[in-house]
Design goal:
295 residues; alpha/beta; 8-stranded parallel sheet; binds zinc ion
Length: 295
């Protein structure tokens, strides 16, 4: 199994910005100490890959610094050349993690999960939609037909639902906090909205019921797993209440379920918003730890 990470994931932000950008460096360092032989630098997604799911005018505006102030505010990051590079690397890493999954059973991007990016605009810290880009890329280049997206970030996967809603071979599933962003949700193929304060037991029970239903829908060629840790009780944005043990049980349940069926799994870290960066990196590292135990 290969793990994709880049120092280009760390975007210089204005002082006091609420996005915990240092988590990417901390997570990469943690994984490097544990499994340096598995780490790979991802390629950047090119215009061809991005253009399958994003409008050419939007790709052009991002690339050439022509996002207006409102568009930048909606994304939540100021435009810089580094922001473009980060966004392309992150989408490229999810594509590369897919290729690892198709060969080794599992692949992980230590970024990604940018599920609020729509066809022609970015939002909620998401510029390009890595799952949509990678799903279409695998269909075109790797003989993949049916794709299942399991989005367990605490925020609903509105951008992914919007972009892939008309793709009959792609099924989008999102389980999220009912009262979390975005306020106006775009229906996935299947959505489960959880009440505030949902803890490990109720969460895992719901997940255990839904996974067999998802795998019974079709013979999936690959599963995209957004393992956002903003479902954690101490997350600053998420309204759910999972523990670290709950996160680990969740990741084991999802990856274990599909691996037992022989279905490749591409994991991405998704959201996580805590000011305690070491604690946050440790939460994100659970995906790596579980995945490396299974491939
Ligand atoms: Zn999130």
């Amino acid at each position: 199994m290969w793990i994709y990470a880049s120092d280009r994931y760390v975007l210089p932000l204005p002082a006091g910005h609420r996005f915990p950008m240092r988590k990417y460096a901390a997570l990469r360092e943690r994984v490097r100490r544990l499994a340096p032989e598995r780490l790979r630098e991802p390629p950047a997604a090119d215009d061809g890959a991005l253009g399958r799911v994003h409008a050419p005018a939007y790709i052009d505006a991002v690339t050439n610094g022509r996002l207006d102030a409102a568009a930048q505010r909606r994304i939540g990051f100021p435009w810089t050349p580094a922001m473009v590079e980060r966004s392309r690397r992150s989408a490229g890493a999810t594509m590369a993690a897919c290729r690892s999954a198709l060969v080794h059973g599992v692949g992980v991007n230590l970024a990604g999960g940018t599920h609020h990016a729509h066809r022609d605009f970015g939002a909620g810290f998401c510029v390009f939609n890595d799952a949509a880009v990678a799903a279409r890329a695998m269909q075109v280049e790797a003989g993949v037909d049916r794709v299942l997206i399991v989005d367990l970030d605490v925020h609903q996967g509105d951008g992914t639902a919007d972009i892939l809603g008309d793709e009959p071979a792609v099924f989008t599933f999102s389980m999220h906090g009912e009262r979390n962003y975005p306020v106006r949700k775009i229906a996935s193929d299947l959505d489960i909205a959880l009440p505030d304060g949902t803890g490990d037991a109720a969460y895992l029970e719901r997940l255990a019921t839904i996974l067999p239903e998802l795998s019974a829908r079709a013979r999936w060629d690959i599963v995209f797993y957004n393992a956002g840790v903003d479902v954690h009780a101490e997350d600053r944005l998420g309204r759910l209440a999972l523990s670290n043990d709950g996160l680990r049980a969740r990741d084991e349940m999802v990856i274990g379920h599909f691996r037992a069926l022989g279905i490749p799994v591409c994991g991405v870290i998704g959201g996580g918003y805590s000011t305690d960066v070491p604690a946050l990196a440790a939460r994100h590292a659970i995906l790596f730890e579980v995945a490396s135990g299974m491939a």
